[in-house]
Amino acid sequence: MNVLKSLLLSLTLFLFIMGCAANQPTLEETYPNLVKENPPERIPYVEKGVTIDSIAFIRVQKQKTLLIEGTFPNPCTQILRVDERTVPEILYIDIIGWQRYQQSCAETIAPFTYVHKGISAEQWANMKLIVINGIEFELPLGSNN
For the chain, which residues make up each domain, given as ranges? Predict the structure, then answer.
């Protein structure tokens, strides 16, 4: 009887844990303005500047990741590319936007969220400064450090 109770308890606990894991919101659900690099393919385009508003650290699959929030100059702008380089204690990121050449678009800013992955825990441990599109952010930020 004790074996049956233990088995039932283990099964219940397993199903509870799986149910909790399945209920975790996706990045897209958590950050509705989430964007990725989306370079144009064989169409004429112009580069557009993007404004960086804030950064924070989040955990994505248990890995420290940089969350960047900003605004596009209009809703037609997308991310062309994200350039990254590191020097001792400094991470430089340039986010370049793009829009179709001669595309008409409302001149209203559009918020975006970008998740920058690929920096190892060892690299984060040595970082003192993050520079994104010329804006400096000193570390630690105080979130998930």
Answer: 33-138
pTM beyond 0.85: the answer is no
What are residue 96's phi and psi, to 5 degrees?
Answer: -115, 130
Those residues whose C-beta lies under 8 Å from the C-beta of residue 33, and which sit 6 or more positions away, are: 69, 110, 111, 112, 113
Q: What is the DSSP string of 50-94?
A: -EEEEEEEEEETTEEEEEEEEEESSTT-EEEEEEEEEETTEEEEE
* pLDDT on residue 13: 61
Read off φ and ψ for residue 45, nearest 5 degrees: -145, 165
What distance in Å separates the CA atoms of residue 13 and residue 145, rounded to the nearest whole number? 31
Q: Residue range 94-107: average pLDDT?
A: 94
- What pLDDT was estimated at residue 5? 66
Residue with tokens 């979130």: 143
What's the DSSP call for residue 3? H
Q: How far is CA 58 from the centre of its chain?
A: 8
Please provide the average confidence, as pLDDT, over all residues in the chain: 86
